[in-house]
Amino acid sequence: MENKDTVGLKVYDPGYMVELLQQDFDSKIFLREYFQNSLEAIQNTPSGKGKIIIDWDTAELEKSFFEKNNPVYKIRITDNGVGMDEEALNKMSDLFTKKTTNDYQNYGIGAKISGLKRSPIGIVYTSWVDNVGRSLILHVNEGKPGIQTQIDDEDNPQTVLNGYKKNNIPKGSRGKCLIQDHGTSVTLHGKHAEDNTFDNPNPHEKINVNWIPKYLNSRYYVISQEAYFCSSRRKEKNSIMMRDRILGQKYFLDINKKSSGTLNLKFEDKQYDAKVHWWILQQNKKQAGHYPETGGTSILFENELYYILNSKNTNRMEMFGVIEDYSHIHIIVEPESYTGFKAHMSRCELRRTLSKDEQKLMPWEIWGKEFEKNMPIELHNHIQEKINKRIKNTSSCVSAAIQNFEKRMKDLEANIDAILHSKGKETDNVSEGDNVTHGNYHGESENPRPNPPKPDPVPPNPSNNLLVKPGAERKKTLPFKNKTIKFVWIENKEEWLDGKIADYSEKANLIRGNKCYHIFEENLKLVLENGSFKKITTSQSVLRKAYYDTIEYKMVVAMQYAKKFKRELGIENFKNVYSNEALLLTTTPDDAFIKLMINFCQQGKKNQENENKEAA
Predict the structure, then answer these.
(1) Which CATH architecture has domain 14-245?
(2) Is this prediction's pTM over 0.85?
(3) ∠ CA 327-333-334 to the nearest 5 degrees?
């Protein structure tokens, strides 16, 4: 095919295009975009060092207070980086700008799209180069994004206004203006004149003002430059405004750590290669609300954290073998540079360019399985210690609960007749002259309730009643019969996806036990440390069978008691008996569990000996 000239694509409605792109940007990402631009601006100074201050525009605050007596806080991000000259500022009119050596400030598509989503009525840029200040306003006017013209001293419209002064710039060290020869300040005015852009854009989150340091400390792994967040918190009435240092996630993990390390994961398929950084955090260390979460998981890519989940999401942590003490363990996965990971334009998610999977999901399960297989000994011992402590604490609680439960069962059994034959039901079990109460049984009293009426010695013949069909006579209430509860073990992981220890089906009268439940094997090891079992048998098959037979027996007995007194317990309490938490308590290896298992071991040993004799 011959080469031909190409007519470039045109965008007739840039406003509509911007709206489409904004759908991929979350409500907070604008802060990341402007903060990242400030970091890059400082890195391109001769010293490579500088300072960033995030506060509110003081001029806008005073204006709103004195004019309307309603203070409005507009967020402002200021840095003493290289600054932008008039040519660089005018590039704001280009929706897409390519980062070059000279275009180090690079207010590209990310800052423009996310900034205009948060602040369509105006984003004010003021920048200094060689101590000359210039300003520019980016906004959306009637659906059209672009640069707002400003009037200079000679009443001429300008896109960039020169001669801007430093009256509205925050102070740096020693009370001096943060910007000396070069730097940039950006103020976002929001969606309307009274919009407090300093507040959290997500109204559903409890944290309001301090969302800024918490977001940046959680988003960035390490912040190499001096970055400060200013709030209205003051030690005294006339003291200066307090400033909090923004340091990144790693700083807060390191100062709270009990132990930490890094594990290199290597695979035959290189696209999964990664480093896993882990921390065990101090138990009694409490974090302030504006600090990042302590326990959790995330992915580290180019010094930024993605897919952040706190310790409340236990499913992901359990993929890495963390099955206890979730809130004090933190895991960060860092893919190797050659694995083909790239950040999405919105900086809200990552892309795997080398993945053959159409969905290109993050390989959490692959990383987790390899990490669990090679788990560092410090982390493994810490988790095991917490498991043993929980079992010990649970055993003491369960012992008291069992005593109360047994006492309650004895009281119920003593009054079984009154419970089973409650008000409104016919009964064959009440003799003439018996003292009967309906509902709860009260025993003998000085003023007993009236005796039930004597039955008619000649009951009416149902066949003579035209309203009752033959064979439809009212059946007598039979004594309570507890049907045998069945029990089966589920050993296939694919058939057991919800992670419960067991469940009970009333319709089938069946308990299904999850033999793949993670705590069973750990408890078995703990139980076998008891020297009583070694005296009985050393056969692992007998011991294992006795262990699971004990669990089966205790679950069945618990359900039998519950079914026997279902009417007394009520529907909600009956369901609580076979909840996952209640069934988990029955597996606690306390003294009663050990005694019962010893009986099963002795029986299992006899059965094994009989089988060996028959085989001989």
Answers:
(1) 2-Layer Sandwich (3.30)
(2) no
(3) 145
